[in-house]
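Help needed: design a sequence for this.
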């Protein structure tokens, strides 16, 4: 009887049929979808922060709550059209509303967006009625609507990581938990940054400082998750995470450099660097949050085009020499 091949003989050696990719890259327009993911996360986080501020009874937070409710409208007003545009056929979005599949991240995300749009839209309309006419009763409806809006907003800020991780794209599928933490933390940081900018311009500097603290804590979590992702990519042999240009430049310099390290440097150095360091840090956080999404999308495409990445990821670790 012939001997079974050893693990070494069965180990993938890095060659493919004429170097052809094993996978097709995702059909997304990275800038469009990356912008939608950014806007959805920003809107969901802003709604969450505004709701928590009101529920916890934060003093002098009426302006923060109002602006958070209005900022949450970015997802249905701007984000949804971007998503429908990338589908190329608008009827596809309607068709996704005909069914609900709990095993499909796309289906879950569609209904999260619809639920968030309805709840946050109701909260914003009631808030506008109270602001314009001075009525008290719309505020009660806004308080009721903000709770489901915050719950669906939390899902909206993170579901896109689950959606990407559920594909066969190596870079997205290799570190799903770390990617979810990165997207969620980045969303909270972006929401806090946007609200802090508004508070400094028209609201309370004290609340703006509290939002800066939330922003920096979220950025620290994002940076830790990015380091964990990098370690996972190296262990699993996903080379596109470090070598894909310009994806690595967008994610590393834009997402981690401008979006994480620069805000910390601005808050630490203060006026030694710029005239208004806190506002500059918030702007850098917002730009970096967008760069993170676009960079991850682009690096995912590069990993799908690289047959070595996809075949290494598909191979059991005890045969790949990575264990």
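Sure. Designed sequence:
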């Amino acid at each position: 009887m012939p001997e079974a091949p050893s693990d070494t003989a069965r180990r993938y050696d890095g060659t493919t049929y004429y170097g052809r990719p094993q996978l097709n890259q995702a059909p997304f327009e990275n800038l469009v979808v990356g912008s939608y993911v950014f806007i959805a996360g920003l809107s969901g986080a802003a709604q969450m922060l505004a709701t928590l501020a009101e529920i916890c009874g934060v003093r002098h937070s009426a302006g923060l709550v109002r602006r958070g409710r209005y900022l949450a409208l970015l997802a249905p007003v701007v984000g949804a059209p971007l998503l429908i545009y990338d589908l190329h056929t608008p009827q596809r979005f309607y068709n996704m509303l005909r069914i609900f599949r709990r095993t499909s991240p796309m289906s879950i995300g569609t209904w999260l967006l619809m639920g968030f749009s309805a709840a946050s839209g109701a909260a914003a309309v009631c808030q506008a009625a109270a602001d314009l006419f001075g009525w008290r009763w719309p505020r009660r409806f806004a308080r009721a609507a903000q709770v489901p809006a915050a719950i669906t907003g939390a899902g909206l800020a993170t579901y896109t990581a689950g959606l990407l991780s559920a594909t066969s794209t190596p870079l997205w599928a290799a570190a799903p938990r770390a990617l979810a933490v990165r997207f969620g933390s980045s969303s909270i940081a972006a929401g806090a940054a946007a609200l802090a900018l508004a508070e400094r311009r028209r609201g309370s500097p004290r609340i703006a400082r509290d939002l800066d603290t939330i922003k920096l804590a979220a950025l620290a979590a994002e940076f830790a998750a990015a380091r964990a992702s990098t370690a996972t990519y190296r262990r699993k042999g996903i080379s596109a995470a470090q070598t894909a240009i310009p994806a690595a430049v967008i994610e590393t310099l834009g997402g981690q450099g401008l979006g994480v390290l620069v805000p910390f440097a601005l808050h630490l150095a203060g006026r030694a660097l710029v005239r208004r360091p806190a506002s500059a840090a918030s702007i850098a956080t917002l730009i970096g949050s967008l760069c993170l999404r676009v960079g991850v999308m682009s690096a995912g495409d590069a990993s799908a085009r690289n047959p070595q990445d996809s075949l290494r990821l598909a191979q059991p670790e005890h045969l790949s020499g990575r264990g």
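DSSP finds 15 helices and no strands in the chain.
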